[in-house]
Amino acid sequence: MNWRSKKILERPEWSVNRALYKGMGYSDYDLDRPLIGIANSWNRVVPGHYNLRQVSEYLQQGIRQAGGTPVEFGVIAACDGIAQGHDGMHYILPTRDLIANDIELMVEAHRLDAIVLLGSCDKIVPAMLMAAARLDLPAIMVVGGPMEGGCHFDGRASDTTSLTEGLGMLKAGKIDESDFYELENCASPTCGSCSFLGTANTMCCVAEAMGLSLPGSATIPATFAERLRIAQESGRQIVELFKQGITARQILNQKGIENGIRVSTAIGGSTNSALHIPAIGYEADCEIGMDLFEELCRSTPHIAKMNPAAAPNVPDFHHAGGVPAVMKALLPLLHGDALTVTGKTLVENVKEAKVLESTIIKSMKDPWSKEGGLAILRGNLAPNTAITKPAAIHPDMQTFTGRAHCFDSEEAADKAILEGKVKEGEVIVIRYEGPKGGPGMREMYKAMKLLYGQGLALKTAVVTDGRFSGTNNGCFVGHISPEAAEGGPIAAVENGDTITIDIPNRKLKLHLSDQKIQNRLAKWQKPEPKFKKGYLALYSRLAESADKGAIIRHKLE
Fold this sequence. Notes:
The chain is built from 21 helices and 14 strands. The chain has a 6-stranded mixed sheet. The protein has a 4-stranded parallel sheet with strand order 2-1-3-4, with helices on both faces. It has a two-stranded antiparallel ribbon with strand order 5-6. The longest helix is centred in the middle third of the chain and has 20 residues, at 225-244. Helix content is 37%, strand content 12%. It has helices at residues 4-7, 15-22, 28-31, 52-65, 80-83, 92-109, 124-135, 160-171, 177-186, 199-210, 225-244, 254-266, 273-283, 290-298, 314-319, 322-330, 346-349, 410-418, 445-453, 514-522, 534-542; strands spanning 35-40, 69-74, 114-119, 139-143, 152-153, 156-157, 375-379, 382-388, 399-407, 426-430, 461-464, 476-477, 498-502, 507-510. The chain folds into 2 domains: 33-152 and 191-349, Response regulator (Rossmann fold, 3-Layer(aba) Sandwich), CATH 3.40.50.2300; 377-548, Glucose Oxidase, domain 1 (3-Layer(bba) Sandwich). Helix 7 packs parallel to helix 10 (199-210), helix 7 packs parallel to helix 13 and helix 18 (410-418) packs parallel to helix 19 (445-453). The protein is globular, with a radius of gyration of 23 Å. Strand 3 (114-119), helix 7 (124-135) and strand 4 form a beta-alpha-beta unit.
């Protein structure tokens, strides 16, 4: 074991360090044990993080039970839901790199011996996994769990996205204001990450599938006592990992990451996993490109279905057997010998797992579909790839041809939809929303939900160099690379052009000749940056394209 903190706490040379800890109440007994960092994203802004203070108490109990000393510090965490549809969304993806950097700096500056990553929600979980891979110390991921489903609405338990769908219905005269405001009161009945399989819960499941969380822990609802018990067990286990010298990269390696991709696509996870997993791979020195994503998605059946692809939510998935049941069903395709934070292999972890509800989790022999829930598209509109989620797209919409209706911002598109200016048969093109052009690659969640609420979800499509929320459905393609701000072909599209989305054949085509596209791009002028100071100005200069995970490169190559 690499007892780093011991070297800076030895007497008498390092008594000053001991004195600083003692100023906070630490005793000699505490300082003679390994210091286990807890990167806690608790706050009272994000409902997915509201319970993490209590979860941390049980986590610290477990660390002390096993002979370690917990050393907790805070990291930022922003809410995608609250940031949706306005300038706040520019800042969400850029927090991912800040969080990873923050954890690295705190752990290295204080020579902590191991790290527990305590968080939930969209960018926070992948950022913490990135930090774990970068640090390569003993590490374990503990999440806050999903919230429960809300009141019944539109054929299923409601959630936060129901409000945006409901707004479209309200504007279309399908519901009245009293129904809408009642929905506001009952759609989020508890704290926790949103109850659907958005990016938050997808990445929690991916963390478990990669082996960095205890089996079964990703989907335990936030308000369950089981959530506290698993936290305490995780506290004991991180000390065991320290004692055994098991570090993050022994788990977050090629095998573990490929397992994470297969599970993500098998459960119909968020398209954002194709943004975050390559970023984790970059930190782990693994080659995780879009070709590998496509290969694994094509060869992995979609065996678990939940909201937004079906009515059941993530707590329902948990009761059906959760990630362990899915992984056991997928074992022939997985790296069963991959090491996990239990100190055991994947095969050993899922030995007793069972499918408890076959209407949610199916077998490989009888899947929801033979291919996974994500798909990588290519074509003259996306030479470097784009991504979509067939698991959330109606079979009748898997192939769609329509007339382009172009918007140079999310706000312009949302306004046109609400004003009834978007018509049946159109492909709504939303551009200059990529990592650099946005900047920050905003989610086009609101546009999709407004289309749904107005009855256009099965009559229109959306393509963008931005991204989508994990809860979106309809017909949509995001992550178009290269993006408009870098002079990608999406910048050349004009109103009335014909676009074809062909998911079965993985094609995204602008019906123009290569010469016509090049002629238009020759006249294109790079737009002025939307942010000329602050972190977003820096991010827009440094961020890579979406097909590379929108990473910020920090390695000397």
